[in-house]
Amino acid sequence: MERAKLEYNSEENRGKSLKQDLGLIINNPRYSDIKIICNDKKEIYSSRAILAARSEVFDGLLYNGMKESYENQIYLPTVNSTTMKIISEYIYTGSIKEPLTKDNIVEIFNAADYFQLLPLVDFIIETVKDELKVNYRNNYSPELLSKAVDTMILSEDNILLNMLIKAVSTTPLNTIEFGRLSIKALQYLLSCTHKKQKPFATPEYEVFRYSALLVSKEISNNTYKTLMELLPILKELEKSIKVNNKWITNRQKVAKELAALVKFIDFRRIKEQIITDIIEPLEITPTVSIYRSYNSYCNNDTRGIPQLYNFKKYSYEIRSWSACIFVNASSESSDQ
User: Which domain holds residue 43?
Assistant: First the structure.
């Protein structure tokens, strides 16, 4: 193998900046004694001593007296090479140049949390917090929540996960296009807010409607179009619009897929007439007698602490927390 060369190696510049000098040996085979094999089978070159000095996890992995202590490579089955390059940059220099985006932030957070790089974890959290406060038009929290529930341990102590739950729960579901929020993410959202005093922006009927449409969209376009006709938005129902019954293709499949979501819907918050005239005839949920078993109708049609929004496009009034997420963010963090 041809010897790797440093691009920045003049006597004049070397030694002036530790950060820049260390940055030049990231993923450089000439200055490495171990290879990290990522889950995409790509290799990242690194230094045992630097990894161990910067991360207790690497210290335990590389200096534990087991085979990893003597081999010249380790395998990380949960980290891809793109993320590992960013983590390596932080380990070596204490900062990252790569912008945090909806495409990488969950992976970077997971890796930073796994390797116990707490300053980087804190930086990501603070960056998200700042963007949630400032940027309420480019809302990528549904996509991030969908990715998070697939890759994170679902814990009430996960700060980033809690922030995404709050962001999505305070965004009206009918403003979130289908395909942005996964069924699994919606289920987790509903489970986290079910019968709890947390901010929420969507009336319970609209929660049911969105759930049914999301499930049907995954099954077939015909099923989705039929349910769109049979489940008007709440404003139309309030105008006493009559809905004609219609055969639903894949009815049993919809009912089966919807069951995981229905158990987290509080039907007490939906008017009985809507249940008997609109929901029960669909035959995709339990019978109305089960709905009535939840005691009486709840005066508030929205779970938790109702939140109203004021997006010009959707005519909602803001009363509290803005829900949003970002496309890009400043990504440099000072090592603490």
Answer: 9-94
